[in-house]
Amino acid sequence: MGDTARSKLQHVELQKNRTEIITSLNTKIYGITTHSNNILVKTKGETKLKLINAMTGEITDSINDINPLKPISIYVTSDHRVFIGAWSGGKAFPASGRRVVVVMDQEGKQLQEYENNKHNKRLFTYPRCISVTSNGNICVVDHLDIDHRGRVTVLSPGGDILGIYIGHPDVNTEKKPFKPVGIRTTPSDNIVVTDVDNHLLHILSDQGQVITYYNLHESEVLNNTFQSGNVNFK
């Protein structure tokens, strides 16, 4: 678990009636996922991702370096491909410079970049979170402004736009805009998006079409963010 406010990263195990801390590190992280039984993290100002040994806490440089770009978000697939949302730095908004999703293999070799559509228009403003379906669709939470208004862009493996989701008209209004902060894909290839300010979970198809939404405030489930890649859905 990562706590950016307290600059702390902890590896914990949930016991029957308590939480056991396995490792605790004083380090500020801005993105986290698991990779080959280790923890892959993004730290501030680095172009290279860091690798943390889950048992010893040792921090080393990973082989995933996207210099001169800077990482924003990370996601690792079951076949060990590493997806990195990245930018060229500067001011986050309005968008300038490069905003891209980079794909690497487990050896750190770059496989592909997703940056512009077929009309050479920018695909992303600030690719905040990434997940990938089992059939290879790339699902990106894209923040559009400093207030975290956003959208979900779903791409095919070839880079075609399959869908763009900007929130549900029944619940997302000008006064309650869609502010996605987390995204995960399920084994059945649905897409689950957290809309924290509105206490909502949005459930989408693998092409970004809305299926339904859940109001977690009414269900007394609050603070619904995804902090790591180890979230299981049926």
UniProtKB/TrEMBL annotation:
Q: Does the keyword Repeat apply?
A: yes
Record keywords: Repeat
UniProt cross-references to InterPro entries, sorted A to Z: 6-blade_b-propeller_TolB-like, NHL_repeat
Q: Give start and end residues of every NHL repeat.
A: 124-158
Name assigned to this protein? Uncharacterized protein
Q: What is the lineage of its organism?
A: Eukaryota, Metazoa, Spiralia, Lophotrochozoa, Mollusca
